[in-house]
Q: What sequence folds into this?
């Protein structure tokens, strides 16, 4: 579903991704974890070309994302992206935030888009917030609206860049529950997260990054109980004993 091959990326003289290769099979959930500055957010942003790459190739569902011949706007309609900050339009209602892209990009009828939006919002526990404006919602509710907005495009892949990092602790659970539900439904996902318990419970594989490189890839049971590299061992000691 997602194939990343020998990807390199620099910001000036700073090499932020070094020879990154990773395979994400269909319906798998992959967690990208590691210290700040490891390149996790940069990597996830290259998957839908929010960041260009210097070399290598990224293929999503058979489409080479960074090929100059690729219609990236069309390719992105199959790749949902949820940011740390919710990026909702403050002047639009929740319903309009969720329906704007299906209507404008996918040319769905207003009626069709609204029907799907209400279904999604209801499934995410926001059925009573359809006509509210983002400023009236909690952070957790806004992030769930952002998830509904991404899902309204019926993507085949969902990318989450630290979706709970801007939230108060009590709001984290409701967002993780929404992602958990998607995992149970078989959505292919890559999640940058600091929530170790969540990664352990929900993900098929843990990808540990440090200094722009993939240091270790393992199933959660293996990674959290017996990390093979000293760098991963030190990281887990620091975050799990915090």
A:
């Amino acid at each position: 579903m997602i194939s990343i091959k020998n990807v390199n990326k620099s910001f000036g003289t700073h090499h932020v991704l070094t020879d990154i290769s990773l395979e994400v099979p269909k319906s798998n959930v992959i967690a990208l974890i590691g210290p700040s500055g490891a390149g996790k957010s940069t990597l996830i942003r290259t998957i839908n070309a929010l960041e260009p790459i210097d070399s290598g190739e990224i293929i999503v569902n058979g489409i080479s994302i960074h090929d100059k011949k690729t219609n990236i706007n069309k390719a992105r309609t199959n790749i949902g992206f949820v940011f740390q900050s919710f990026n909702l339009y403050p002047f639009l209602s929740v319903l309009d935030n969720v329906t704007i892209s299906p209507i404008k990009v996918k040319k769905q009828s207003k009626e069709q888009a609204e029907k799907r939006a209400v279904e999604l919002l209801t499934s995410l526990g926001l059925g009573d917030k359809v006509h509210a404006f983002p400023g009236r919602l909690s952070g957790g509710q806004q992030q769930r609206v952002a998830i509904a907005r991404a899902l309204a495009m019926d993507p085949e892949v969902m990318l989450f860049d630290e979706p709970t990092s801007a939230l108060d602790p009590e709001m984290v659970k409701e967002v993780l529950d929404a992602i958990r539900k998607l995992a149970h439904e078989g959505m292919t996902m890559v999640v940058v997260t600091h929530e170790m318990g969540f990664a352990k419970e929900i993900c098929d594989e843990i990808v540990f990054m440090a200094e722009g490189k993939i240091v270790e890839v393992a199933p959660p049971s293996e990674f959290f109980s017996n990390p093979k590299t000293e760098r991963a061992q030190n990281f887990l000691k620091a975050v799990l004993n915090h």
In short: The longest helix spans residues 169-184. The first strand starts at residue 2 and ends at 11.
